[in-house]
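A quick word before the example. In earlier lectures we treated sequence and structure as two separate objects. From today on, think of them as two lines of the same record. Here is C2H2-type domain-containing protein written that way.
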Amino acid sequence: MTLSRSLTCEVCARSFARFEHLQRHSRTHTKEKPYNCQCGRSFTRKDLLTRHERLNHGSAEERYNWHEVQSPSRQRRPEDQVLASPLSDSSPGDVPSGSTDAPMAENAPSIFDAYSTESFLFSGSDQSVGFDDPMLGYTRFLNTPGVPLDMNHLLLNQSLDHIPSLLDDGSLHHNVAQTVDSSSLVPDQSQGDDDFHELKPVRCPWLVSESQRMQLQNALGPFKHLLRSFQYPSKLAIARYMGGFVDGFSHHNPFIHIPTLRQMRNEHTPELTLAILAIGAQYRYEKKTARSLYHATRSIVLDRWCQGNLFRPSTQTSSRGAHQDLSPSDHDWMHRIRTLLLLTIFASWQGDLTLTQEAFEYQGMLARGLRGIGLSESSDESGSNWLAWTRDESDRRTKLFGWCFLNLQGFAFDIPPSLLGRELNMFLPSSCKEWLAPNEAQWLATRQISRTTFKEAHSTHLATGASQPSASTLSPMGNYILIHALMQRIYLTQQLSPDEHAQSLFPQDIANFEQALHRWRHTWRTSPESGLDLHNPYNSLAFTSTALLGVAHVRIYCNLGQWRDLQSCDPSTIAGTLEKAPPPQRGPELIYALLHSVHALNIPAQIGISYLAHCKSFSWSIQHALCDLEFAAFLSKWLLAVSASCDLQPLSVLENRVVCWIGRVVREALLSHDDSADMLPDLGEVDLNNPQKTTRRLSYAVVKVWAEMFQSCNSPWPIVNLVGQSLHKYSELIQPELAGATTWP
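And the structure line, produced from the sequence above:
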């Protein structure tokens, strides 16, 4: 009893197990701070004083090294040492800055090696027949034990503190001591609680100083008359938006070099910084601020356009290789191209009619700018200067990705491409190891001298003959560019059809494109950096490329692009147009289109519809939503076609298997989403003895699953929710047709 009373606080009567705990607690009442620093600060505990001295009174090197040891992203636990899959060609949010991580990435076993060659994606032959389990044929590569199923391997040494600031003077030898101390990231206006200030630092690698913020504001001075109502973001806001851009956007759009982003000098093009911040604010879900930054950037770009100095004058245009050193003014022209590309991306995915029309305005401007800056290279000899190489590679990627995005706009909104593939005479992008190298030493260690041009690789896919192309050394971005080239060719071939509403191509064209797509798949499969780690945002482009491959297979037989009217930004209009689209013709040749479509639904079903919608959609590319819209409509219409014709044309063995696959995937998807689980009793088991009723039920269910997922997802881009709303409206349109088959909630 005496011991208990001696460990009880006399003020609040709270009991403690140890005297030091009581002593520490008592100081919260007395405000006593017995541990004093020579600078005048006082602390309640000795360890807080020690930490304060290390952070604020040690040398720059000591402070930096202390952060190296203490940073959670650098201090790896044993369970965090999960080897990641081969890096895809994208920019990680935070680049490894130490050589200790390099061997890990270098020696990591490729999860690609664990994929079964029987998978339809990794084999040129039809492996869809003969499996005991109908699901096994196309999901084996997802269920391989070698595929990492946790997120720990994504923690790739997340610190960029050693890189100079984006807004500073561009010095290549920026002193680490100038980096803002992480302990200052939480403003401490109070004088009464030093404990909270010392114990709760917020790590913020993109924080800028007030002088750097003023540099941006001063650079925008010439455009003050355009920005009268514009509110400049605070230091913390800039840091937050930069983090959003790097963590969310750069994985899917790797054309700005993140390791040297802080060194980018853009005092002559401050609109590029505003465009980056607008994208970053979108990924931080601060949509009003994102719109404000977007409109500020747009005002500057349009002002330059009206003044005639947005792009380099034609008299300065010359045919030059990307290896040549560009003058600062030339890099300013490229910064303006990047700004326009970012504006186009931002406006295209807002699901807003006005902004979509603005995106179409940028389309012609971007095409003109890319042509003016030059889309040809004579050689690829960047030498051993890493910084010069990063500028050249960034310029190359900006041009190639700009062409891809213009092509993606055509795919999404069914508009003719502004730039044709034949206009590209450039080398394909570097490997991701080169692109992600955080310093010159690691870049030299991964340097690849031999490069392939776009025309060479594309011609290989279009070649006739039964032989497969040789093993590929292309990067994931290179494969992404090449699948876009094939999709553009399919689109242009369809436009030559005398029947404007023709769903399928001519037989010879179909055979040629099927062969070209199989060759592309072989190239993707043999590329050393290809991977399908569904939890890894750094595999974005490799993963997205396979979705585009599936859409290419679908469009050969069923061109739904002209029936989507996505540019209306109205769910009812989109659904009504889709409902009018004619169904595909049944036949064994549809197997790859069907497999890719079911596989696209199987991925979220295995992860979990609710989990993906709320936790993972942030890291998925928008292109998945665009592709899934087409997959959902295609599967639904194929199932309705089977239901309407199964009495006269019984289902083949292959069609029976596909229906079983769809049924299993749909049931699993419904189980993983609470709001859709009530549909399961009405769906029932797949009954192949009554295919008419079964396929009619499934035609509604596949659309409903995708609609629920996209309607509830937390994607920062509104167009994803627009896809979900459109599919929901479409499901309502086809539901009355199913009244005789079942009753749906």
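Notice the following. Confidence is low (pLDDT under 50) at residues 1-5, 59-198, 315-328, 739-745. We will return to this example when we discuss secondary structure assignment.
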